[in-house]
């Protein structure tokens, strides 16, 4: 059953345009214009293109009043994803579906009410939140600014339904590999989590399994002025559990300036030396820590602790064997460089390293069920059920574990069922609360 949009007692407005500019589409139009107009005259975001909506609810009331006093019916309300000038995908919420419009409109007044500010200079309209520019528009005519970006269509499908706010918070907590509530709130304030708010995070058993308070490591201060000036490194050995690829060691490198981390998985300890065989010829000078004094290498010790906390949380959450630790650690590294860090003034390592904000639009819950497209014949199923293992570097695809074939596969044609992870967590939450009474 459809619903009535907010403020349905008052008609939404589009004003300041001539009759032929934004009104009813003519029968000669071959397709809806794909441009987005940054508009100061409309009260809500609006689009005539139903296929662009990622979420959608039919509505039975509400009209749009045009500048010439004509009206158009609102058919639905939902969200549309748009890839901005910097490559970040952002979600436009409360989008009105108005089939008779000729243009796609982004309401500047709506953005203003949500704390965004806009300025114009040299025929460019820039929309910012704090110091971060999130949208840009190029002036096309005397009145119209066209968004520098494109609508996201044909994205990996997600099997999901409308979720309560508490479950949205759990969803992002697991997508971000059990990030703290404070950092999730910070990302939400920056508008980086699909425009969704973060509520108080309820009890998470997997965080209890994975994290434990320890004495803080002393942080060394190196006063670096740029990336790659000083690199921290350490070798970590697993406790008798080789990875599925046979690795027994994890070698980490951390850039001191940006806090970006890389992890390499080695079968033997002797493999480490090949990574450093050119250090003298390249002018790299080693700073050694005193034996049995890990505190002198505090940055890497802290990073190893953070990595292993995430690995334990993710293995517990996904209910996977310990032999998947390397796949988990690789995914955890990716999430760490997209997480705010106290060491760099709450910025993310990705932002400091590249100058661009992190993109969270492709994040999925590690270990969730995922269905990969296959073509094994006309009468065979079109998908095979797998487990989501993470993101393949330099490849536009997802890394999956196929239990049926017992191998890792890479695919971009996938359907995720993240909601399958939520009932399990909710059940554990309620049982733990009962035990705490």
UniProtKB/TrEMBL annotation:
One of its GO terms (biological process) is DNA integration. The keyword Hydrolase applies. One of its GO terms (molecular function) is peptidase activity. Gene3D superfamilies: Ribonuclease H-like superfamily/Ribonuclease H. The keyword Protease applies. Pfam families: gag_pre-integrs, Pol_BBD, SH3_retrovirus. SUPFAM superfamilies: Ribonuclease H-like (SSF53098). Keywords: Hydrolase, Protease. Residues 252-357 form the Integrase catalytic domain. This is Integrase catalytic domain-containing protein. It comes from Gossypium anomalum.
